[in-house]
């Protein structure tokens, strides 16, 4: 249900629809990427809502996204020279690398999400604003999921 909420919010915002078309990823491709982020977050014992919030902000779940500066790649905008096994993008699982980066920063900052997200983003005022934005996305998502759970909805996934 988590990935459906994010993808539906993406495709219901006019500006995001244009952005989605520009990037060329379909609903199913984004849903698949989101699910991979959730799976990897669970495997690395990272809060999946936090990891998905970052992937949503970074790429709107575009698996082959490239950062404007050419340094970050994939759904979570991982930096291969820092987080990929051979320090190169070739044969690197970018979702695994992104979640590994997040987990590393969480561990370095005693699981303080604000500090870890800020480190994930870089330095300075933009990193501070980015961290607050991610935490707002995470909180909104948690509240929405809580509200949906109280509605006794039945969600069937294929």
Concise synopsis of the structure shown:
65% of the residues lie in helices and 0% in strands. The longest helix has 26 residues.
CATH class identity: Mainly Alpha
Query: Major sheet: size, sense and barrel closure?
Result: none
Q: Indicate the low-confidence ranges by residue numbers.
A: 153-158
Domain module tally? 1
Describe this entry's structure for a reader.
It is built from 8 helices and no strands. By secondary structure, the chain is mainly alpha-helical. The chain has a single domain (2-145), classed as Lysozyme (Orthogonal Bundle). α6 crosses α7 (113-121). It is globular. Mean pLDDT is 84; it is low at 153-158.
List the helices and strands and how they pair.
Blueprint: H1 2-11, H2 14-23, H3 27-43, H4 48-59, H5 80-83, H6 94-108, H7 113-121, H8 125-150
Helix pairs in contact: 1-3, 3-4, 4-8, 6-7, 7-8
